[in-house]
Design goal:
Two copies of one chain form a homodimer. In chain A, 66% of the residues lie in helices and 6% in strands. By secondary structure, chain A is mostly helical. In chain A, strand 1 (86-90) and strand 2 (98-102) form a beta hairpin. In chain A, helix 3 (59-66) crosses helix 4 (70-82). At the A-B interface, helix 1, helix 2, helix 5 and helix 6 of A face helix 1, helix 2, helix 5 and helix 6 of B. Chain B binds a DNA duplex through residues 41, 43, 58-60, 69-75, 77-78, 94-98.
Chain lengths: 154, 154
DNA sequence: TATTATTAGTTGCAATAGCAACTAATGTCA
DNA sequence: TGACATTAGTTGCTATTGCAACTAATAATA
């Protein structure tokens, strides 16, 4: 039974902690924007974003592209259907497979959110010059790939 | 009523999205470690980490240092008390103010988790050389400061 | 072609999150 | 000192999360 800490962890300097704090801070910023103006959660907006980019995706496609868990996705999709922001058909050849797309209302909202998002992204990135932006992207990319490889082998 | 998307948002290239995805991926990695071996949530571990670093902090101190919302904190603290990982006294001069610290069991767990955390952090950062690590830290720092400044003025 | 496995999506349920209202203690200031 | 404000922490309530079990459709295989 040890009575003293052999080694101290400095939480505020711990890399995963710092990353999580900044990311949550920024997500919160965007969450507020989507929520206040359009009553959309980040999850809901991400679904719409994917459908803007890839119309007629299935729920499963969306899940694969965004890593949103399928039960969460199912419920988020239902809310978007209820609000008539997206519509759903089922594939003729595979009746399980949904085909989701933005409705015209959805497209209107999408067309408002997209430039707004880019504008806020730009504002966020004003703290970086071009080199730094490129650096950050490269580093994030590397980190992401590497953390994927760690997931398997433990 | 517009029928087509004027501008498409590429979600997988959108900076806040990428940051959030990598951060969640990495948080998940660490969450698994703390959960599997010690049945601790990230929140619970963060509280313990703060108490290892700053013994006799109050719940409010912990909240300020970690930005954990106070109701979440209150319940997490109760679970740690139940498991006898932390102990609580109340200040003599201000009976509202709690004084939290790790118990000897808590210190044992802490002493196990700290080197493990650093080890996993090291493994995570093997994808970076020294320069890149420094770069990432600088950039994260900048970003964090800047996003704080954005929080206010909207 | 019958049996079994896989896949898409939904739903049940228990745990967690987080806002708001609350209690109790302390601080402020007329 | 007494009225009011603030602070520390707890609790109620509703919404969200996410695992696991489920249904229904399709694929694979013997």
């Amino acid at each position: 039974m040890s009575e003293i800490n052999k080694q101290i962890l400095t939480l505020e300097g711990f890399f995963p902690y710092k990353l999580s704090v900044s990311s949550n801070k920024i997500s919160g910023l965007f969450a507020d924007i989507y929520q206040d103006k359009f009553a959309l959660s980040i999850t809901q907006w991400r679904i719409m974003a994917i459908l803007g980019e890839y119309p007629d995706s299935s729920a499963d496609d969306v899940s694969n592209k965004t890593h949103i868990e399928k039960s969460i996705l199912s419920r988020a999709i239902n809310k978007l259907l209820q609000r008539n922001l997206i519509q759903r058909a089922f594939s003729e050849t595979d009746k399980r497979r949904s085909m989701l797309s933005l409705t015209s209302t959805g497209i209107d909202v999408y067309n408002e959110i997209v430039p707004l998002s880019y504008e806020y992204e730009k504002q966020l990135l004003t703290c970086f010059n071009a080199t730094e932006k490129a650096q950050f992207n490269t580093l994030l990319e590397k980190l992401c790939t590497h953390s994927d490889s760690l997931k398997g082998n433990n």
